[in-house]
């Protein structure tokens, strides 16, 4: 778990944390489980030497979802005095096996005594089950943010960020979001130099701000067939180039605006207006990846009045400009088009509809 010390002296003991307990549950993904161990467990020249304790949260060997068995050397008692307690991942959130009461109690006690409690990726579901996220903002992998919101309605789910720092409790999105959060913890306690040293060792970007968006495809679960709300969401996704208002969507679902808003938030963890804007930017992302159309035309096909209207929303959600995103995801060979498509092909919402009218407003969802 830790390489021999380098010749250079280690940094002095951390002001914020030195003992890290990593709670490992049965049937978890191996990569996510290893993230905090990789960040904190390796000894590097000029960086703190953390005491990392791999804890079997349910007793006995830990089986991964790939069938590998890990012999975690510590039991839950090892987390009782840790400065930093991390749940790096979790088995599928719909598993019939909830977290053990003993593990949840350890997390509650850790928080009560002032330890920093962290979840990475699906580990957020465990913190939510412990009640530690009630009334707090939190995030998880984009594929499961809607499920998190429906299972734990008292959590303020943020579906489009890499991580959330609430001081004593921090949560992160997917695998690389977990690395980002661990480096953020180092930076928060030790400063940029130490965090950059660890990042270089891992060959990963030294800093991605927590508010940067996850690169996501579908921020909510697929709508169920025959569900009025799901049918309306499906229809809206196919007509993003039109001017869509929340009132019009509610009417299409045969619901009052208040009922529609309430059911929408319960199902997705966000508001209809935010969801529509998010979907427009996602559609613009796909068009940037798969066509070489000008950004102006892509903006209109995604329901924005112009490229000028698209850019601030795109940068806020994705973290980069449309041009930078296209350069990063297309590569030197150009767009990765589906067979039979070309410049200007009708690839998006609206069933192949052309450019929407110029007066279509960006995110017209009042």
From TrEMBL:
Pfam families: DJ-1_PfpI, HTH_18. Residues 230-328 form the HTH araC/xylS-type domain. It comes from the Bacteria. Residues 355-366 have a biased composition (Low complexity). Residues 341-354 have a biased composition (Gly residues). InterPro entries: Class_I_gatase-like, DJ-1/PfpI, Homeodomain-like_sf, HTH_AraC, HTH_AraC-typ_CS, INH-QAR. Keywords: DNA-binding, Transcription, Transcription regulation. Residues 333-366 are annotated as: Disordered. This is Helix-turn-helix domain-containing protein. It comes from Planomonospora alba.
């Amino acid at each position: 778990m830790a390489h021999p010390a380098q010749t250079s002296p280690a940094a002095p003991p951390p002001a914020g944390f030195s003992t890290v307990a990593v709670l490992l549950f049965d049937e978890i993904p191996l990569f996510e489980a290893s993230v905090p161990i990789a960040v904190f467990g390796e000894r590097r020249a000029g960086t703190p030497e953390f005491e990392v304790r791999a804890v079997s949260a349910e007793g006995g060997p830990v089986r991964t979802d790939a069938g590998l068995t890990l012999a975690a050397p510590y039991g839950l008692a090892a987390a009782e005095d840790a400065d930093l307690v991390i749940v790096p991942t979790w088995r599928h959130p719909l598993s019939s096996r909830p977290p053990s009461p003993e593990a949840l109690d350890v997390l509650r006690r850790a928080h009560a005594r002032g330890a920093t409690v962290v979840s990475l990726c699906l580990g957020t579901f465990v913190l939510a089950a412990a009640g530690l996220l009630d009334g707090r903002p939190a995030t998880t992998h984009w594929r499961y943010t809607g499920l998190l919101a429906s299972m734990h309605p008292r959590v303020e789910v943020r579906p489009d960020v890499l991580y959330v720092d609430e001081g004593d409790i921090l949560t992160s999105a997917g695998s690389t979001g977990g690395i980002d959060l661990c480096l953020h913890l180092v930076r928060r306690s030790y400063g940029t130099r130490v965090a950059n040293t660890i990042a270089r060792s891992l060959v990963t970007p030294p800093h991605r701000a927590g508010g940067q968006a996850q690169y996501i495809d579908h921020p909510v679960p697929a709508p169920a067939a025959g569900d009025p709300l799901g049918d309306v969401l499906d229809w809206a996704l196919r007509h993003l180039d039109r001017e869509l208002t929340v009132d019009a969507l509610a009417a299409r679902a045969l619901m009052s605006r208040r009922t529609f808003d309430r059911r929408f938030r319960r199902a997705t963890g966000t508001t209809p207006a935010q969801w529509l804007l998010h979907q427009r930017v996602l559609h613009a992302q796909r068009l940037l990846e798969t066509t070489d159309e000008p950004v102006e035309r892509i903006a209109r096909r995604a329901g924005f009045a112009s490229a000028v209207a698209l850019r601030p929303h795109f940068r806020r959600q994705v973290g980069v400009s449309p041009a930078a995103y296209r350069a990063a995801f297309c590569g030197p060979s150009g767009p990765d088009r589906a067979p039979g498509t070309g410049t200007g092909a009708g690839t998006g919402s609206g069933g192949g509809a052309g450019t929407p009218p110029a007066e279509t407003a960006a995110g017209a969802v009042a």
